[in-house]
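Exercise 3.2. Students should predict the tertiary structure of the chain below and write it as structure tokens, then compare their answer with the key that follows.

Predict this chain's 3D structure.
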Amino acid sequence: MQFFTRHNLKYFDKMRCLRKRSAVSFLGILVVCLLFMNLYIEDSYVLEGDKQLIRETATHQLNPERYVHSFKDLSNFSGSINISYRYLAGTPLPRKRYLTIGLSSVKRRKGNYLLETIKSIFEQSSYEELKEIAVVVQLADFDSAWCEGMVQDISQKFAHHIIAGRLIVIHVPEDYYPVLDGLKRNYNDPEDRVKFRSKQNVDYAFLLNFCANLSDYYVMLEDDVRCSKNFLTAVKKVITSREGSYWVTLEFSKLGYIGKLYHSHDLPRLAHFLLMFYQEMPCDWLLIHFRGLLAQKEVIRFKPSLFQHMGYYSSYKGAENKLKDDDFEEESFDIPDNPPANLHTNMNVFENYEASKAYSSIDEYFWGKAPSTGDFYGIVFEKPIKISKIKVVTGTEDRQNDILHHGALEVGEKIVGSKKGRQCTTYLRLGEFKNGNFEITDVEHKVLFDINCMRILVTKSQKEWLIIRSISVWTSQTPNQ
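Answer key:
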């Protein structure tokens, strides 16, 4: 498998910049051509609005709402692809699960990490978590002898998981694949490289298509991955924290096609998309376009990472691949709950570094201009809560002086409405910031009331600007209403 870390991207930026620009342009033109043909066939003319879409595409200035509408109109993208899958191990799931974990694997010239990946998924999950997951392994190699051997190994090692209905092994016959030879050589890639990445796109499309109705959510892994402890619980916390917000893809690793989470109802559309452009570019580039077409402009990636690349040899020609995700934490992962809340501040916000960017696990932050005494950053929870732990970090590595030099953290009760919005009438101070940071545990034993609000209060004016890098809240029991 091919992975690209942020570190590598910086290194290869100059070489790939031109290729990426051409990829964006080329893919955009293909999409628009298909839209044009579809509209022409149905209506015998192109509306003025669609002509504007073509002009916008040519200059890379797409109107997201109109582009998404057109993409949704592509012929039956929400329907499944008609494929006959072979069950090599396991049977159809008797009930829908919370999360499906999908892996596609082919024979490697050197090394094989599939069994270790499956083992990590199950070993890092609790008994209760295992009830909510399904693992689908697609053996995508055309070598039937290799597939039979892998099925035997998987069946022997994970028999109890197959019997329990949480592990399925599938295969798609070669007859269902499109042409893989003589494809156009975009980016001047060698023919065998083009064939490899094009087939990989089709492999993923078939896997996504199979998994579309198995669960509420789907996460893609590669076949050489190690998982963090209780990763499902962490994923569920993140999904809960995103309730009410729009997202297409949530990322739990910065490497390749590892740890990318989707709503299952988007899988048929993604499968069609990969098939439509299977020969154009690598899958990780196509995924960026897919996310953008559905109007998620920015990457939503959570730290620490939940999945780590552990392979040493790539599935392409057995080349060395030592890439690692330096944000991965295996044992000490403790993602906050950050219950739903309304966020507000009276500080002067710099550009688009708004208050919401501090209250999440995403690698973003709030940035305000020099605060004065009495300025605050407020959090009003949607429901009263019991809090066990609070942690606030200000400043960043490259702006170490943009911290809260003098401040306090307070929690409040007795919420009321006002012209300035909902806020609490009384507050209890839990402590002062030290070196720009604040952390407190056992809050539920120190605060006797159910907490409605929390605020960061500036206690002395400062000339430096203020970055609130992260606000993390861990809850204990749900209070009685």
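Discussion points: The chain has a mean pLDDT of 80. The longest strand covers residues 376-385.
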